[in-house]
Design a protein that fits this description.
By secondary structure, the chain is α+β, with helices and mostly antiparallel strands. The protein is built from 10 helices and 9 strands. It has a 4-stranded antiparallel beta sheet. Helix 3 packs across helix 4. The radius of gyration is 31 Å and the shape is elongated.
Length: about 325
């Protein structure tokens, strides 16, 4: 099935203000749309749809089938199906979700009135989105990061990049004879950016460089230049510090610099952990949506006056004007 109804990464801020329907007070008992689940069902009445059409299409006195009706019923079916699926998974759309919906809808449109022009249903649809997002957050909680951050390695190094192994070995010989690393880097390195800084690459968290470079760097003795080959060429690497941010691993850094490195490590781990969590939550929400599209496509009934149900696309198709 191709249809997608929610951009889940931005679900809690989705612009659902336009999805307005009537609250149903005093509406006709005739059913315009119905969807059923495992022991549960939801109905949308003809009276409610008529009130909705009166709001969005006031010139349509006969309330004949229109694209607006088909689009609205499609949205109603989808959000109702999501709510039924959430209920099957033990998730309830609460008053708290609805209160949050009221707050956000009112903030987006100061003239929004919960009980007018279908506002109650708009509130419910947004509340369904909030409930789904909260469910995903509960299923995939954010992990603690302090222990991981403490073990994050940093490589503080400088390098000289050349084309051939022969050039790199010649540089190693010059360094062993007392040549200045920074001067050679500024004169010979093919990496112009670091070369202008004497080859300095700063202190970078593990994973910042290609694997052969990092393997050579983390295995090097501090202050003893080593050679590494990567897809970029041959590197002469001089390591000032390597490993988690401790005085033993980074003797060239003072206490303030070490503290900053540790803070950077925690921030980096936090960012990576949050990205992983968001990715997993996104996967759950996509799975939820796929389940809705697959399981409820055959459980929808639409009054033929307003169109017909296309289960393959999960949409109501407007009937031709009568």
């Amino acid at each position: 099935m191709q249809r997608r109804r929610i951009s889940w990464p931005a679900a809690t801020a989705a612009a659902l203000v336009v999805l307005l329907a009537a609250s149903g007070c005093g509406a006709s008992a005739e059913t315009a749309a119905e969807i059923s689940g495992a022991g549960r069902s939801a109905q949308y009445t003809v009276g409610e749809l008529t009130d909705y059409l009166a709001t969005v299409d006031p010139d349509n006195e006969a309330r004949a089938p229109r694209a607006a009706a088909a689009d609205w019923l499609t949205d109603w079916v989808f959000f109702s199906a999501v709510e039924l699926e959430l209920a099957d998974r033990g998730v309830t759309v609460t008053n708290e979700h609805e209160s949050r919906s009221v707050n956000e809808l009112t903030l987006a449109d100061p003239e929004f009135v919960p009980g007018a022009a279908g506002g109650d249903v708009a509130i419910r649809q947004r509340a369904v989105v909030f409930a789904a997002a909260q469910w995903a957050e509960q299923e995939v909680p954010a992990p603690p990061v302090s222990a991981v951050a403490a073990g994050l390695r940093y490589l503080c190094s400088r390098h000289i990049l050349v084309e051939s192994r022969q050039d790199a070995e010649l540089i190693l010989e010059q360094l062993a004879a007392g040549a200045d690393f920074a001067v050679l880097a500024s004169l010979l390195s093919l990496d112009a950016a670091s070369g202008s800084r004497g080859g300095d690459l700063g202190c970078a968290p593990e994973g910042s460089f290609v694997a052969p470079f990092e393997e050579a760097g983390y295995n090097a003795e501090l202050g003893e230049p080593v050679l590494a080959e990567t897809q970029f060429g041959f590197h002469v690497i001089d390591v000032a510090g390597a490993g988690p941010p401790t005085p033993e691993n980074h003797p060239h850094l003072d206490d303030a610099a070490l503290e900053q490195l540790a803070a950077n490590a925690e921030a980096a781990v936090q960012q990576a952990a949050q990205a992983a969590v968001q990715s997993e939550r996104q996967r759950l929400l996509v799975d939820l949506q796929e389940a809705v599209l697959a399981d409820y496509a055959s459980r929808v009934k639409i009054d033929e006056r307003y169109g017909y149900w296309d289960p393959e696309q999960f949409v109501v198709v407007a009937a031709p004007p009568g």
